[in-house]
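Q: Protein A?
A:
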Amino acid sequence: MASEARPIHPFDAEERDQFIPVRKTDILEALIASGRLAGEQAQAGFGRFCHLLGALFHYEFFETLEGLRDDYYYFNPEMDVNGRFTAEMRERARADLGEKLAKVLNNANYVPVPLDEVTQTATGGQFVRVAVETPLEDYREVSFFRRGHHKETTETRGWLGLSKKTEERWVYDNVVLSVVIKSEDEIASKRQLKRLEKSHFRPGSILIKYFRNIAPGELKMLLPRVRVVMSLFDKLTIAVPALAGAVPLIINLLPLLTVLFLVGGFYLGLTSSVRQEDVLRAFVALTFVAGLGGLVMRQRLKYERLSLKYQKEISDHFYFRNVSNNAGIFDYIVGTAEEQECKEAFLAYYFLLTAVEPPDQEALDKQIEKWLAETFHVDVDFEVDDALGKLERLGLLKHDNGKLTVIPITEALEVLDERWDNIFQYANQAAAARRTRGLEQVS
């Protein structure tokens, strides 16, 4: 995980993911089983080293998790807390939340997706072949983040559903969506406010959603309140029958309109008399009007039924791909970032510890990537600079003219244990105070 935010760039199917899609436990077991640590004592020592290192990272990320939860409290859509805090407090919390969320997503190897890349997609989804509109006027900010990609197979139908073919398309392994709803001060009209209330969106709240296996062309469908857009074929299937049925009715109705108005005027008291044949012709005209109204209503219901069908298709497709929402996402994201930190540190320390000759950074990077490919069959762009940065921050790494080494396991355990003991200083401070009082009494 890079210490700085990655540059935003369009999706490239050939890019190599920096995320290591292997469990921390599996990596640790595979490293010990590789046989480069001589003897059970060395293997047990490396296991204790990884356990202690994982505990330190867990504590560090626990603080991150608590910070995210505290900041999100102001914006949780399930709670109404705006009235209890000032605008300055909410703005400061929003900025802190955005910064912390972006940082932990970066640590978990997520890459930002430009909003233009999402909204300017001309076609519908790749697996859900429905076009949608993405109204953004109610949102202050919309952010997408993706991680990992693979191919997924789908069966598509050809013209009129008479033929079928199987296609493989790229999908993102993980997608996180963050939507900041405008506050009441930013909402331009009462109509917009009512629209938000109808959608059960609290002004000023923040929606966060986590999905799996989403195609690039389907990102816009993840936004709240997307509207289905009928295709030209759909519009023709509704409009052509409507015109075919309406034209004869209108042609027959036009000559009878005068009679209809005349009879209507008689019953309203506007005219004194009306002929019997005019009344009969007026009833015929009403029949045509009723037929025209029924045709319009039938086509309207057909349009709504088709729209609901597409909405259901979208809902069914994404229902099982939505993994978590809002505050529940933080535990997953922070846990993933923590595990990535551990896996990178484990790998870097192990291969430096067992190296026959001290490697440089490039050689270490290639060695770890090769081992991951051979052991777990994954092609990963290992972030060696970030892994080395963690070891150096903990005092475990040594540099010598570009060559890299680490301190032995026994010494590393002492360094990590001392760092763990000094996370809290209360007992040490109390012991020092007691020693000071004892010396004062003696003197």
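Q: Protein B?
A:
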Amino acid sequence: MSTPVDADTTVFFSVYLSTDVTTDDSGLAEAFEKAILEEDWLVLERYPHREMVLDLDAEFHGPADKMTVEYRRVMAEIIGPLGG
């Protein structure tokens, strides 16, 4: 979920669900997801602030980007009529 804070800031919330995690190892799954997000954050901090690219043809997307591609597609549908 995305929640706009102001014109330049959005807070993203996510839920992690899995059928291959038991109660006993849920802490490991949480730690793994947190480590991945921290790695992503380190990469994103290297880039200057820019608007989200909604044009899906402007960047390369691989299989792991399926959720990001869908998110951008939906955002483009919502923003498209407002921006044009």
